[in-house]
Amino acid sequence: MRLRMSLCYDAGMNIKSARFIKGIVADDDLLEDDKPQIAVIGRSNVGKSSLINSLTGQRDLARTSAFPGRTREINLFLINNKFYLVDLPGYGFAKGSGKERDWLIRLINWYLFKSPYKQKIVVLILDANIGPSEKDLEMLRALEKYGKNIIVIANKVDKIKKSELKQRLLKIQKVAGAHKIIPYSSDRKIGIKELTAEIFK
Ligand code: GTP
Ligand code: MG
To answer: What CATH number does the domain located at 18-200 have?
Structure first.
């Protein structure tokens, strides 16, 4: 019985295919095709695109960079031909021109808060090592205000000493309140199972 249950779990709750569809910067008919959207949001450089790669098991699916401001469009990845993972640009971007920064923020705010599109889940990524920033808190409050279904990722836990991990996670739990928190590391493949289970719930 136990074996059968685990087989059921594997069959229904895995990412079997993932492909890049396109990057959008405005309304797009594609997003009206009724497939659920799962958006990934967070500070620039926090690891949004890397999380999409680790989650799908494809190293180069989403473009990543050591420099903030890499993702500049709303990138749609079709998963299992059933739903979209939506990789967004980051906020809290310190470098680059003000114009570019404003444009990216406007794009994020449009997609999450003003567009006609609804997200099944918004995955908010926080850097567990650095801790939640002012801008992270602003984003979290805005997502709450708009009634989004939020999952909080405590990312880059591989950078934290074992002895400090609990403390850092508690700090994030404090700001995340009742939202589900998943400790995660794209580098060490930590949290992938937990996040996959939440997405397929
Ligand atoms: P923008 O598109 O610029 O907003 O950034 P992003 O949030 O998509 O970040 P990206 O995935 O491009 O990663 C930024 C940097 O963080 C890269 O140098 C990654 O290698 C690194 N990084 C991502 N995930 C992890 C992780 O789990 N652990 C560690 N140590 N580094 C990570
Ligand atoms: Mg990115």
So the answer is: 3.40.50.300
